[in-house]
Batch of 3 targets.
Target 1
Amino acid sequence: MNDLGALFLNAMLVENMPLTLFLGLCTFLALSRRPGTAVGLGLAVILVMGVTVPLNQVIYAHLLAPGSWAWAGMPDLDLSHLSLLSFIAVIAAMVQLVEMLLDRFFPAIHASFGVFLPLLAVHCAIVGGSLFMEERRYGFVESLVFGLGGGAGFALAVIMLSAIRARLAYADLPDGLRGLGSAFLLTGMMSLGFSAFAQMVAP
Amino acid sequence: MQPKLWPILAAPLIRQNPVMLQILGICSALAVTTTVATALTMSVALTAVLVMGAAIISAIRRHIPSTIRIMLQIIIVASLVIVIDQILQAWFFELSQSLSVYVSLIATNCLVLGRTESFALRNPPLPSAVDALGNGLGYSLVLVTMGGVRELFGAGELLGHTVLPTVDQGGWFEPLSLMMLAPSAFFLLGLMIWGLRSLIPEQVEQPEFQTPEVAEAQR
């Protein structure tokens, strides 16, 4: 249990997706102008990562990993080079499915962050989460915790950045720094702050 | 040959730079730039995928139903990425270890999908490939510059050769360890964007809000 807690904190704070691993920066910068949209995006990322990382773990362990076809008489079959393709397909399909389910059963939630779901089909942080799961050989429960932690870290970072940018909307910045330039400098400072967490969880 | 190919190639290098102006493909641009060698590998891999992907998609663009075009583009790009990844693992194993998952993430790089979606689907193969090459070179320019700055000031080396002798080796240069950490990538790219937009003022973003006095004065 303690290990899982450490894994969650590690995925959320130490290996924060946008700030230390540089994943998902496109949406991170593009949708952080207003706190409202940032909250919606953050929730959508938590949901999709919490679903797709464990699902991809099941698919990888039972269909793609070397030796997983031993029961069918093919112990040498190694399909792990197909993992990227199948992860992307699974994520795109799951995003579509989650969107339809939310629309049908929870229309209020769908209205609040459903518009961000299609964007997440090609989101580096989500595909990256699945690829890290494969690289580090996580089990099912571990990958569930890792997915939720990574999503929570992304949500935390994007909400914080949007709050800072909302404050700076009225600031008198130099022309060249307006918009993207200042967003990068702010992200850099946040990343500097998050690097203090590196000592918190022992690897 | 059409005479218009040169501007298609040259525009994305500085003026329409994919990383600095269009905000495409920054994830990998920041992550792999701790040394010049990784930045160079990543640039070559991305440019190769981009050019081949654009050429293939543009060649079959009349046969792609528009409802499934995104899925089809992702599958084509992901297949090319798998090929590149296997090549890197076979012949450049150490480099591919240090690039970790970022080579696979070329498949979801916004730059690749952005160019195929906005250019290759509407143009014949040759201009599409040239446009992809230009964007790939623009991306490489930013990556190699950042990799050079970070390796030079973080370790005193360029491509593994000592340029500034560090204190550890009996020289005078105290390495800036910040350059090896994540935040410096954000700072460097932010400063590069600032510099570029100061040189080319038409790239400056419009302010979201103006004080009443300014609005009054402009009227």
Note: Residues 2-68+79-199 of chain A form one domain.
Target 2
Amino acid sequence: MTFDEEYFNIGYLDRLSYRDTVVHRLDPRGKVIATMIFVITVISYPKYEVIPLVPFFIFPVLLITLSDTPFKFVLKKMLIVSPFAVFIGIFNPLFDTRAVTLADGVLISAGWISFLSLLIKFTLTTSSALLLIATTSFPGICTALQRLGVPAPFTSQLFFLYRYIFVLMEEAMRIVRARDLRSFGSRGTDIKVFVRLIGILFVRTVERAERIYNAMLSRGFRGHIPSMRQLRFTISDAIFVFLTIAFLSALRFFNITEMIGRFVQELAV
Amino acid sequence: MHMADALLSPAVGATFWAGTLGTIAYCSKKLKENLDEKLIPLMGVLGAFIFAAQMINFTIPVTGSSGHLGGGLILAIILGPYAAFLVMASVLTVQALFFADGGLLALGCNIWNMGIYPCFIAYPLIYKPLTKNSTSNGRILFASLLSAVIGLQLGAFSVVIQTLLSGKSELPFGTFLLLMQPIHLGIGIVEGIVTAGVISYVRTVRPELLESIPASRPLAAGISLKNVLVTFVILAAITGGALSWFASTFPDGLEWSIEKVYGKAELPEQEHGITAVLKGFQEKTAFLPDYTFKKSENEAKQEEAAPSWPGVDTGTSLSGILGAVIVLGVIMIIGVSIRAIRRNKS
């Protein structure tokens, strides 16, 4: 599989998001809020913190297992987008070479610690975004955003965008296939042909938008998309959000990892 | 050039989210004022078009590497700044969610970097005055080349600024700048050529298409508030940037400004009431560690050795590592057993 196919296989995520598990059944609003708080909590740690970040892995692990999301899929997606963060982070060990003592006689440069902290934060934040969408249908997220106060023109066209990604991507795939069949080596992949192809795609897109609009008008469209789906924020959603916040703040205020480590050390002595 | 969550501090992320959300609200209001129902489906489908266009790659003449279309400028030319900004914001939202490109906190920064600059600076201030509705291909090429390059340079520069303000990376300002700007010069040139090419192509093949769309947007005509908005955006960037710069990079900067106000470096202390409670809470959380106004003697000393590696004490870090191993083990056991239980059930 090429990079592009990996990057664009959003159809699989879409199918995942319509499954029916404990996590999928939670209200999208609760999940959006919980994910946001999770990301902010993780990011709030100073750059040399590694140890207190470890317990946060419980969140992605619980979500992956409870929602039956394939672990390898999430991992692969994260690897694809990792270059930028890794590229910027790898300079930390180069520029920050102050030595710190790790354990008796084990020295390490501070830059490696901040790099490790960065990688952990990257893993936690990217996986939380992916898991949010893998467990929540996109229309659900659009409705949630609208209920949370995001203006309607934005959410309606976000909804449209999602609907037509699949259609237009298939169109683009057909164009690419046709080009590849007619070109040899690097012929036909130059910028001139590309501009033509995009132009054609654009013309088709606008014509399609016109047809969609007419079809919608004849079905009574008046500027916004009514939804039959009723969102219900139940007690279990409230409990979910409350537990998340409680657990996150417990982890943030107390260094639980170190407490456990010290406890075990004392037991051993 | 998607900014990543891991490189951000909460203060910087939140600042740019605030700016982005404000702009989304403003653009939505603008669209609602001259509501054209036709525009909503068109915006959505054009957003999907950007994704589809990104799937088609091409060979960049000199380097031989492959390139994609970014899309901000072409959207602004077709839809006008307000609608284009909303479409760009949703394209980036979908990228953040489905491709994990950037992340949710960094989404605010990304919309800012790739939405504001092409829609509210490059298009209205460079592209429009340069083309003046002219249909000459050379003119369109020159205008879109210049606006794409400037838009992307501003975006790349913002990534550098945001990273530095967050203080998670050790990259020196100059080095980082030298890494980012030239790469984005190349990307900008390609983006400009492609944008101009597509616009000219559509203009020759189906001229009525481009004209029918601007006709359906009275918005473009009525940008008298444009300059106000641009000024506001620049002001917000400067104040936001300057404030968080003082707060996060030079902890003394804030104290220095407090000194100006109060005549001494410390705020008059309030030992009782809500302030004291909040202070205790803040010290405990250190959510925005550099924002703490008042520091006790010891803390201030520690700060001088900053950025300090907390608890260099060997015993502490050893128990920390031990704890980390145990916690990870427990998490893995939890994960594996839940999976096993669920498998058995089904």
Note: The longest helix of chain B spans residues 173-205.
Target 3
Amino acid sequence: MNLKPQGAGKSILNILRNNTVPIMFIIICSICIPISGFSPAYLLNEILTRLGRNAFLILSLLIPIMAGMGLNFGMTLGAMAGELALIFVSDWQIWGIPGVILAMIVSVPFSVVLGFICGKLLNMAKGREMITSYIISFFINGVYQLIVLYLMGSLIPIKHSSIKLPRGYGIRNTVSLLNMRQCIDNLLAIRIGGVKIPALTLLIIALMCLLIVWFRRTKLGQDMRAVGQDMQVARDAGIQVERTRIISIIISTVLAGFGMILYLQNIGNLSTYSAHSQVGMFCIAALLVGGASVDHASIGNVFLGAVLFHLMFIVAPQAGAKITGDSMIGEYFRVFVSYGVITMALIMYEMKKRRQKASIGEQLALAQREGSRHE
Amino acid sequence: MKEKLSSFVASFGLPRLIISAFLLALFILAPIVGVDLPMQITNVINRFSWNAVLVLAMVPMVHSGCGLNFGLPLGIISGLLGATLSLEFGFTGPMSFVMAALISTPFALILGSGYGWLLNKIKGGEMMIATYVGFSSVSFMCMMWLLLPYHKADMVWGLAGKGLRTTISLEGYYDKVLSRFLQINIGKISIPVGALLLFALLATAMWAFLHTKTGTAMTAVGSNPVFAKAAGIHVDRIRMLSVVMSTWLAAIGILVYEQGFGFIQLYMAPFYMALPAVSAILIGGATVNKATIMNVILGTFLFQGIVTMTPTVMNSVIHTDMSEVVRVIASQGMILYALTRKTEVTR
């Protein structure tokens, strides 16, 4: 809208303003790394592991953002679907890579159903998608607990007592996934010095990125972007807005399910009742740290964010302990930063939206005035 | 007749009806399965008295159109600051409660004004941002509880001599100071009159305030901000006032909660405290932009009734404690229902 040529100084300022969060994180990390005293090889190793673990999950957030539905706090639903699938697969005693692939297949129907419910509800709450998806994740967490803690083993057959609670029904607090631990990460892993590169996992993530790039160019992807720009205009252009929004949430949920399975095969055990509870928050914080906003996110944001956020996560406790002599400070600091980043991003998004609204209003007034002058 | 019934269901709301029926069933079932009913009633009344003020804190912001105050933890933090400082300064007994309320007031005013200023900047996105303002402030205070120079021996970690404990016992301070005040015992049922009186006082004050000129202006801002602005009301100032009121009530609310519960809970404890209060007022019949004192009373009673009754009754019936799951599904479902109602989207 602004056609005025801008000076170089102003454009640098703009770049700075648009990337406040990543720059802030680079500063935090560059202060904390020397204090923490970790070796570069250790840090690189940790970051590659965590990138492999989390990038897929973060990628699942991109599509709802494209469809203008904001940060999908309902990705937790996908995570729960993935966990359900893993519980079944480990009950069937199918391990290794076949186990992981089977879990992914089994997770799809769960994800689709949950994503459909989530999409339907979000269509009923247009304009407040984020808070609604956030509450949906809590609600479905209650349903998940009902299923896993009470129905599994009593109504839903679970054969192996190793994953059941001693009372005969319900799943134990942790389900061991030792037999599929890092099976994908270790296959084709490349070791250079002390650094292990989980090549296959990274390859899967790269493929996913290509898929997302391709998806953006399809008819459906274009429709989603149109819906994200302006729902009314999209509807007038003959796009089925509601359907498109539901599909975008379903895709996101399915991807989050896959991402969760990849995440858990790296960790090697499943904390049945808590593994999913923080996943949404951490992924969203990471994406925002990478410079994404509520209405715009790119694949570059995902990787930059994953690296910076997890770098902070690794070094902050150690650095905090060195500075204050109390290891808990660092722990709390990183939690605070995660929430702070999300808060800042939400505030900046809402303020930008208001500014845009105001400027559109001004332009409209200007156009009207000019129109009346011509008459 | 059928039409009347369906219109009643529509106005009362199906989830609300289910929850009320569920609670009624619990009350009927309780004596049959051998649960000590008077004891349970005492519990429900007590828990009502602990939580009612926190639920009341929802009212002003709903009235001014700021939506449900998911940022309640910010007010709770003011209350916690007041509580810990009052103890640190060496006040004991009932005096410590009064001082805690007094000390927390300036914190609530300052934090509330900042919070209100922020919410005025981001109209339309209040609820999500409120949630995260609450979260960030709780996690920020987690660091502060460790770093602030508290020294009282029964509040800090014994070994290090600094850093507040996660839970601080209020014995000797203001433990049950309101509940025991004018307490009435009828048979096995005991009623914490003092705590109920304080709630009644605050609720009446709130009711009276909503009928003053400023209060009416607040309702006007909530129901139609454009009209309110045209009528010469300072919309931003009224919204700010509502946020400050809500924050202050949350601060007092947590103090009332603590005196009933007997402990100050710090660190991550205030994190999810907004959600029970939000769902309580919604169960009571409030919507995202309409709430009355009656909603508060009814909602707190229903919510706390379910929270107290489910574990015991369920345990006696099926010998497992499903209460946590029931509580989560009922309360989150209620919030979800309120957020997705068609009539409220067009604001």
Note: Chain B touches chain A at residues 70, 118, 121-125, 127-129, 131-133, 135-136, 139-140, 142-143, 146-147, 163, 275, 320, 322, 324-325, 328-329, 332-333, 335-336, 339-342, 345 (CB under 8 Å).
